[in-house]
TrEMBL record:
Gene3D superfamilies: NAD(P)-binding Rossmann-like Domain. It comes from Sinorhizobium glycinis. Residues 77-218 form the XdhC Rossmann domain. InterPro entries: MoCofactor_Util/Proc (IPR052698), XdhC_Rossmann_dom (IPR027051). This is XdhC/CoxF family protein. Coiled coil: none annotated.
Length: 234
């Protein structure tokens, strides 16, 4: 691999941006593109699909055999609230390949005994997130039922373009949340991105079942996320 390609991949990794290396199998030449960069128009569909799926692929374009190797940032799950659903997610998320962080200022809930082997931050989201920014490869799940804790990280996640933003609560609870967000200046387009009630509708009842529904919805959002900002064709 050429030094310039390695440098671009390292830049993408540091910035938590996706990258794809397109290799021409007939000539041996390779080009690396970071998400958000311009790339040749004829490669648009192939690169878009590779970035969406996260899988390497072969393609033939203009009679040229190409190999597309994709490098995605590791997906992260940030959970606001050290509740029973979060405990179940802490067991499930790593199995699905997600780095997970739990944030909750309530020290009675945010204990190492309840959350082992994951990052646990017993502090207010307002104090944590400015120094640990969310991004497009982060999912945020707000599950405390407390607007004093949940509302700020929801706004931050929407501003950051997180691929998933979910919030626990009934439709009535969410309607009240929507009014608060509107009053805080959040746009209707952004509000519509919130998954609430949180999780796929599988009839989940227990915390463990809700955690399964939430994780499944997060995986679905990751694999079908909007590629509209990845880059405009040259």
């Amino acid at each position: 691999m050429q030094l310039s390609t390695l440098e671009k991949l390292n830049t993408a990794r540091t910035a938590r941006r996706a990258a794809v290396v397109v290799s021409d199998l007939s000539s041996g030449r390779a080009q690396a593109f970071m998400e958000g960069e311009r790339f040749p128009a004829e490669w648009d569909a192939a690169i878009t699909e590779a970035l969406r799926s996260g899988r390497a692929a072969l393609a033939t374009i203009d009679e040229r055999p190409l190999f597309l190797n994709v490098y995605l940032p590791p997906p992260r799950l940030v959970v606001i609230g050290a509740v029973h659903i979060s405990q179940a997610l802490a067991r499930l998320a790593p199995v699905a390949g997600f780095d997970m962080t739990v944030i909750d200022p309530r020290t009675a809930f945010a204990t190492v005994e309840r959350f082992q082997n994951i990052e646990l931050l017993a502090d207010w989201p307002e104090d944590v997130l400015p120094t640990r920014p969310l991004d497009r490869y982060t999912a945020l799940a707000a599950v405390t039922h407390d607007p004093k804790i949940d509302d700020y990280p929801i706004r931050v996640a929407l501003d950051a373009g997180c691929f998933y933003v979910g919030a626990l609560g009934s439709r009535k609870t969410h309607a009240t949340r929507v009014e608060r967000l509107r009053s805080a200046g959040v746009s209707e387009e952004a509000i519509d991105r919130i998954r609430a009630p949180i999780g796929l509708d599988i009839g989940a009842a227990s915390p463990a079942e809700i955690a399964v529904a939430v994780l499944a919805e997060i995986i679905d959002a990751l694999r079908h996320r909007d590629r509209g900002e990845q880059g405009r064709a040259a």
